[in-house]
Amino acid sequence: MNEYILIVEDEAVLYRRMKKILSKEGFKIGDYTPSVEEALRQIDEHRPDLVLLDIKLQGDLTGIDLGKMLYNDYRIPFIYVTDFDNDIFFAKALETHHEQYLVKTKPRLNATELKRAIYTALQKKQDNQTQTGKAGKFGIEALVNYLDTLKNSGHKDITRKNILFEDIAFFTRDEKFLKEYNTGFRKNYIWLITRDHKIFFLKTSLKKIIENLPDNFVRVNDHYIINLKPPFFEGRINNKTIRVWSEIINIGDSYKNAFNRKLKTYFLS
Predict the structure, then answer these.
(1) Mean pLDDT of 1-12
(2) CATH of domain 139-268
(3) What is the pTM of this model?
């Protein structure tokens, strides 16, 4: 069990209790995190697989504020663990797309309920990343070493791997990335480049894949869909050219207006 869970909870006693319960299950647990500000700092340092989130926290921002960020900006699943057992807070929480809403029971936390909710959320996350060429909530399954394997062994030995959206710099059909291959490439495939500059393949088209990607991805020309999130999008060079993960990419005339709207909306939201 290697999943890393961040507990955002201002009650140190309850944090320690949950950490003890989950450590026995084999989960890696983050440090004590009593505020949204501290949670964001820890997420930037070590991205969790799941967040356990109280609503009442230290500081001006609440767990619901963080829940919105986790869903819209980070795409990290989270479970509310809170004292608020009323319809008003539950309705507010529903708007943040949480995985589960657990009410703290005093004087003891229901360990079985907590563990079942966590395993359910993690299984759901895994299930959302299972179909090649079709995006799930957090990532996509792609083909590994597709050209070499197809040439040497055939379809039966092709390896698949789940790639998180947060690790994808861009999707492309630019064949300059395939210089190392001596074989032709089928026209009904695209490929993606990750943060460590690895290439993975998808049996789909840019037109189809963009329909199922998170809002931080945008089509910029006939050959590229880019990730606007840092550290990938490095900014404009001029009105027609941008830099993405060290690549210089042109903005197609037919995509320019949509790209400018998405850029403005994304960075002002």
Answers:
(1) 90
(2) 2.40.50.1020
(3) 0.53
